[in-house]
Amino acid sequence: MAKNIVIVGAQWGDEGKGKIVDILTESADIVVRFQGGNNAGHTVIVGEEKYVFHLIPSGILHAGKTCIIGDGVVVDPEVLLKEIEVLKEKNLFRPEDLLISKNAHLIMPYHKKLDIARERLRGCNKIGTTGRGIGPAYEDKVSRCGIKCGDLLDEGEFRVKLKTNLLEKNHYIKTILHEDGFEIHEIYHKYMTIAQSIGPLIKNTSKFISDAIASGKNILFEGAQGTLLDVDHGTYPFVTSSNTVAGEAATGSGIGPSKIDEVIGITKAYCTRVGEGPFPSELDGPEADRLREQGGEYGATTGRPRRCGWFDAVALRYAARINGLDGLVVTKLDVLDNLDTIKICTGYKYKGEILDEFPTEASILFKCEPVYEALEGWKAQTQGVKSFDKLPKKAQDYIKRLEELTGVKVTIISVGANRNDAIILKNPFK
Ligand code: GDP
Ligand code: IMO
Ligand code: MG
Predict the structure, then answer these.
(1) Which of 203, 216, 343, 385 lies in disulfide reach of 2, CB 3.0 to 4.6 Å?
(2) How much of the chain, in percent, has pLDDT values that exceed 90?
(3) What is the DSSP string of 111-129?
């Protein structure tokens, strides 16, 4: 029976969604990105080759599967074109396999400038954004002055919308930021030139997905960022500007929520965060450095070193609730292979009391002290292991403890960056 599965990040992003989407695409017909933009960096490693996708769904390496950039995504057309070029150079681009929603909003050059300037103005309260214009593009969408991918197909409409936007944006940029504004002609020509390449891919993707569901296709919805970066349910204001939770898979693709069969959360066997904001189980000093180096924890989009810490079961239980997780994928178990002791954060201490529900208020989270449980490390290599019962006993115990603490069954365990390094306990499509 056909199934529609949603993949979401269950932490602060970079959980390994790209790798898992690539694996599951084999069982899917269609892969849909439903939110975020090129703030995302999704890594897929096949053999010696490494691919990092920012906008194109991570299923694109599988020929004959349709990859869709859905309604809820914000698209920087220059970045998209570059991503297409890289795939073309490697002979991996098949235009018939990629569709872009006409409803997806465009990231414009002024959005990037505003993103960077706002961060500067925030000073020590900065969010640590990726500087890709994501926030300002979503602001324009909600304030009803955004320009959509579909507008690229109508030169007159595009020009009028651009002109109206520039009146306001240039005024703000010149008078408040004291920086140079933008010329309409430059943006117009650049975007119309790009439209010649990507125009034929812009379609009514909501209808395409609905028809595919009706004809019994398997659909994989690929989330970006992570639950704790959700604009409503994350650690606001240290969040991204879209809904990253599973509910968004419906609105961000233009299908009804009743069509979704299962939601799978991706989590690392420990925790990372990029940018500012509270992170209760964060480590510093040599323990953090060790996780960072062992796990290669540097941003796939900005190259920034990721902050590292122990697995946070309080945050994960919250992610399980807010997404309605049916299953959990644990990645990067191999990164813990050499540790004597592995800790899990099981509660937060706040004002002398133990909280077991995750508080989303940044002001509270900053003051929460993690309560840890320590487990003995397994001190053996897990990469190359193909079944759960071949894992070292203590690694099995670690996974079982994560299941107990989060209340969610583990369905896949990833033990290396490569496509092949995975123990599949249950394929959600089967
Ligand atoms: P995403 O944004 O959720 O797709 O994750 P990123 O690609 O930003 O970051 C995950 C990083 O971990 C990438 O460099 C992956 O190649 C790597 N990775 C994924 N799974 C594993 C794993 O099980 N073990 C190891 N060592 N690396 C992994
Ligand atoms: P993937 O999909 C990790 C973080 C930024 C910053 C905050 C807001 O690869 O998991 P934004 O540019 O979105 O306005 O920045 O969100 N952030 C991510 N962190 N992984 C990501 O994506 C992220 N996308 C945004 O670092 O703290
Ligand atoms: Mg990433």
Answers:
(1) 216
(2) 99
(3) HHHHHHHHHHHHGGG----
